[in-house]
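INFO batch 0412 | record 1 of 1 | parsing
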Amino acid sequence: MDYLRQLFVAMKFSNVETFIASGNVIFDSKSKNAKALERKIEDYLQETLGYEVATFVRLTSELADVANYKPFREAELNGEGNVLYIAFVGDKPSSVSKDKLLPLTSEVDEFHIYGREVYWLRHRMNGESKFSGALLEKALGMRATIRNSTTVKKIALKYS
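INFO prediction complete | emitting tokens
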């Protein structure tokens, strides 16, 4: 994570911090164009690391909205063994993407799409699910990065 932070400093971002060992980088930028920032970061990481790194930029206010959004009933969110994941994608999923993902709902995996995020509620224990991040990307037809909602809430709380 320290190396990742150094890469963002080298890209001339300010107030760079990493948050837990999951690839979350918080930084300030003069640019407010998220797409341009994503391209800049992806290009630099590809050049420096030698492999593609999917990058998704959110303002701290957007992250707070994501963390506070309730995609499912409280009883489901707090059910024993249930875990809520949030998948960040580059663009709002199309209706075609939604039509491919939502039918994959099962008694174990439930999905909700709102804005540029996909909320994935895993009922019971993770080992019972047949679903994965790779299947999510395939169904949506776009790259994604997935975080546990607890991590998203901690980041939002600390930085908003």
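INFO post-check: The longest strand covers residues 83-89.
INFO record closed
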